[in-house]
Fold:
Amino acid sequence: MLCLSLALLAGCRDREADAARYARQTRQLRDATRMLDALETSDGTVPASLSAITPVDASGATVDLASPYPNDPSVQGRDPRWLLLGLPPTALLLFHFVRRRKRPSMSDTVSLASLFAGSVPPPVPGAMNRPTPTSTATPVTATPTIPVEAASSPAEDASVPSTFFDDHASLHLVGDARHPELHRVGDVPLPFDAWRERLSRIASTDGADAALASWLLPALLVMQSRSLRRHDAEILLDEAAGLAADGILGASSGDRPHWIARAIRIELAKIERQSGATRLFALRALQSRQSTDLAGDAPCVLDAWIDVHLAWAGWLLGDGANARYAEAESLCERLADAGDDGPALALKRRAAIVLRQADNPRAASYVDQLDRAQALLGEAHALDGDAHTALLIARTAHRLAVALPPTEAADACSHALMHAFLAEQHPAWRVEALECRLAIQLTYESLPGRTTQGEVVATLERELAAMDAESAGARLAMATARLREGDFAGASALCEAAWRSGANDARLFTLWHDACRGWSETAATAGHDREALAQALRQLAVARSTT
Structure:
């Protein structure tokens, strides 16, 4: 133990001051290693590889192995086996020194955030001209950090995926820089197992990337569970819940509320896979925790509880749903007073509640509800300038344009298009903003007295196709354009693809029915494939019967 302490102290001293001692210790280690090799041979003789070596000192004189340093008075008369006592601590120091030199620093490794698309701030609204729906100008887009999509077979020793794409990666990081969320673009199949393996490997290390990987891994499992059957999904969700529980236990006071919000949303994802009384009991059990959470007033936790009540309201009717909406409104009031980001987030969540209630276009209050939601989102966008908020404004304004009289719809279309352009500047929302632009353009051109700008629609379709936008929204927008152009077979195929991507609303079936009807009416004169038409009609019937 005394030798180890002395060796550690010697290793911490200044190298320049102890250069001579360091050189002597190096020679001692070299010669002691040779001596050990000789002792470990079966017959006790020195190996030939060592006997052929004649050591010399600095002056060139021959040195006897039995007396390694004859010219050094400090070791004269000593048994050379004393070196064996100092060998273990010296070797330990040398091993530690080499290991520290080989260990990569955080600055030398690729950040985990580089696996995803970079965050590009939206432009200042006042710096853009108000575009018109017939404008063919392409907005100037900011250059994002190179986003990456994981390869299906990631390299064993690679810290980044092997396949690079342009600015439409399937996974993006959005939201808070320290606690971002995963946003999936389109319905392109993702190599979840590759992503999962990579995040798990990074999470087992140290540093900022490990913390980020630990935070994102439960979200990835929840995302993957949505494409699996119930039994397989429950396994992933249970694993995600365990990771969230571990995160809560090991989190700092500043991170703990975010982990609690993560755990609430994971529990909600598990409840979404249930039905009937089982779902109701699970919701009530989850609600019982709302008043006991220690971080219940944190903005992220309040936001998660609002998600719970909105989902709950969607499974109820009448007074039951209104009670959930009222509870969500009361949480928004608390959220408005919580933190610097609270007011903008509260406005967005209030708008979400209003939009959920504005589900009947025939209701007398429908337009008023959309007006209120748009006003709330406008206030939120003035506070945060977020691209996602701009996209929500564009979608709400488009819904308003469809509901308004033709004399007022044009201004609503222009307002929607301006915010769609703003949202398009961010790579995470670019595809959805293009979908919205296409829908706005088609609505504008359908107004009385408006000319058809076929080249604008065709350009937007090409942009969506080039970005592999396989989302249901993109397919429905392109199907609407094909239907207007008279391509009934193409519109029907896009509707079927949208249905297979998860769309099952009234708009889809109306559009699909119109495409098949137009296809049937022109089949005799246009020479269409009747067998393909019959197959499309059968598929439409199957889709309706299973919804």
